[in-house]
Amino acid sequence: MNTLKNIRWLSAALLLFSSLTALQGQPLYFETLDRRDGLASLSVSSISQDSRGFLWLGSQGGLHRYDGYSMSLFENEPFVDTSLSGNVVQTTYYDSSREILWIGTYQGLNALDLATQQFTAYRRDPENPQTLNHDVVVSIFRDSKNRLWVGTLGGLHRFHDESGTFTQYPTGPEPGQISHPTIRDIHEDRGGRLWIVSNGGVYRYDETRDAFVLVIGIKAGNYTSDFGMVAQEDPNGLLYFGFWDGGVVLYDPEADRILENLLPQDLRIYSMLLDREGYLWVGTWGGGLFCLDPGAKEFSQSLQQRGVRGSLPGNIIYSLFEDRTGMIWVGTHGNGLGLYNPTSRIFSHMTHNPADGQSIASGSVTTIFKDSKNRYWVGTYNGGLNLFEEFDGAVQRFAYDQNQTSSISNNIIRQIVEAPDGNIWVATNDGLNRYNEDGTFTRFEAPDTTIMSILPREEPGTFWLGTYSKGVVAWGPETGLTQTLSLGDSLVYNLTRDDKKRLWIGTNRGLYLYNPTNPDTIQGLQKDGTLEGLAGQTVRTQYLDSEGRMWIGTIEGGVTVISPDFTILHHYGKEEGLVSYNVSALVRDSEGAVWASTNSGMNRLSYPSGVTLSLGREQGLPYDEFSTGVLRDTDGYLLLGNVDGLTRFDPNLVREQTRSFPPTITRVFVQNQERELSFLGEEIPEVWVPWSQNSILLEFAGLDFSGSRTDRFFYALEGFDRDWVDGTNRRQAGYTNLSPGTYTFYLSWDSDMSFTDVPRESRVLVRVEAPPFFQPWAFILYSLLTVAFIYGITQIRLKFALADQVQQLTKTQEALEIANKKLNYMSYHDQLSGLGNRRMFSDTLSREWMHCRRSEEPISLISLDIDFFKPYNDTLGHPAGDEVIRQVSQVLTDSVSRGGDLVCRIGGEEFALVLPATTAEGAIQIASTIQAGLAFRQISHPASSLGPFLTVSIGIETLVPKNEDIQVLVNASDDALYAAKNQGRNRIVHASLES
Hints:
single chain, 995 residues, alpha+beta, 5-stranded mixed sheet, 9 helices, 15% helix, 37% strand
């Protein structure tokens, strides 16, 4: 007993320390689900998961079932007794003992039979004391003795399953009673004790007396608040109680004493969750989300940051839930549902903070280097150079200063190297720079203004330089230009020297190999449409492994492995699992695997086995659009540059996704009509297909929300398919014209699995009915028809003629509906870019203007033009111009993160972004994101006077609408755009801030 007490007090001491430390740590990254994902309401009050893995989301707009792809809505249907009793759902509870989902609403208690999908409602009847005494149900729990407890705003009840009646427990000041009728939570601890958390304090149920004992509260004399909200329990049996205006209390039920208060008491706690890894999550009403790290013993706080991708959706946390794969779901009040993947804890990030002068500079990371003094050098695109000694430590920035000749010559950093003499050299878009240890730079004029790559040669004091327009040159600060390797008009991205002293040259026109022993010959590999050539023409990155193989990453062709004798060994593309053909960087980890970062995530590659792992946002990677910077650190960690900064992780901690449960068939349609299925019994569900409706469609899902978007299914209809069908990028299978008989549909993760091993949850029997003329009674009919042959033939012809007419009419009606939908879509969308057109812009802007005027919120309008677009068309042709429009449209779409934001193309090269409830600072941040995304793509613009790449000019205006006309906002935004053009283009001008 003493040992147990010591453990409890040690836990309390550690938690006391954690409560006194500052709230800190890496920001958590949340995916957000909102109305675009099917939520009927953005207030998600409760979350549960059933035995098959479906998530059930209670909201103020009804009940949703979510399978990772789509949501099914259950709501109150007037005059239908078997529907949900009310659409404002307050709580849900999955009752595994009966396969029932209990739903507490503002209109009573509901039991959803998951087998039949039918609701049974229990409401208050003032004349019947065996019903609920209040219709607002806020807590539900079934204890270890199989008793169902129901808490309402009117008190506590015990439900009797056999009779469907309730025992009401009175509330009041009498001994044994709960003083306040609002029952917020019900919890049973490991010792079998039942705890009732109410707005009158925390009570323990005394079963021998069928009464309640006040344990924590003002009247108990041990706390300053009575407003209990929620309870959780840790592995040591200690209890956490959350209070409204009272923080979180740590309580020892064995010692019957409060150990500590873990958060400020002015926080209004609304929800809590202790996850499987020991992290305590605390949701507040307006104060965001807190998380206690059991290792660091400190809380971190997450808050909503409008316009910041991946921030907490909202600061009012209605509900918290951990699903069976460990994903953390955060239901907010008014801002949808947040999803946090704990795998993201593996990744650390350095990002630009405008308020912190010692944070990393803004801009995508182009290069990362660690010198012999263990200092990190990080170059960015348009943000200059960064220097720091510890990851996530203080950063020293170096930027171009037109008034200082000792500053770095340009803010676009291409590559950083250390020469054999220890000097640091920096290649930029305006020549070369040598770093001086006093923090200054010495500038050198190079053979080309833009130096894309730099590599020290064997001759002391000289370098190979990869240039923008002059190929590869040998150069030294003392010797000047001594040699040129002519590669036509190729742009040289990267240089690597192998152990045979050969120079591998990656360009925008393929890969070249220069051998100094045969200087008159340069070998080349280009994209020629065959497997013997490159899959992509632009070699953006290269990596030489220890076996002498060269790995190259291309912008449009994925990864290619090349042998030391300069022949193709292997291509890696999407068909092998590569997340994108646009490869930014390559690096090898300590185990020999090569990691490829792309604009859509990263892959781990192995030769010759192929892609062994994919990582994106759903696998916990908050930043998945990577740039060209990459480094394997001396401790084995990998550092990858992205468009927002740096990502660092230990590749040995990344594990391949495992499946501990089978995929699930979610819905079945016969001739476009959904059929109900139940997997909750011992029998495999059956679907009958009438002979006249011989068309069946089966939908399926993995119900593993850590990677549902990347699920790869295999399916087969035994008796029809000869083998497994690869369902990559699909989650449904359709069959028509099946012959009469019985088939079995199988679903699996693995194409090597035998049909006999497929679990019951992944199987459906499909019984196709035989046509009437094959039924036994049909032969009797044939005998009768012979008596009246002519009459029968006539009737049959009329029947089929009528059926054909009905079918033709149905097809015509469907075609008209499709045409109408297409016409409506075309009237609101630009056909080239897929964005909204001017009509959608005008309608949306008017609507959001009125909304912001009512709510007194700001609305921002961004007007945007592509710089020198007409010369671009005149030089490269209209097809190239159309492609640029599509690329810019994609950048604009990627730059907004909220469902209410709208991107439109309103003219040839003119675009507009409507940003409701967005401040000037938020609009400027989005505009900066647009410029950064466009700069990262490096779209060539040979006719631009601003530089080699395509740019845009942006005008912004922000107003809080009052009585002025909406045209004031439009004109101000246009004026700001014209000001941006007049000031030299490729810039952002905010009308109000300018004035």
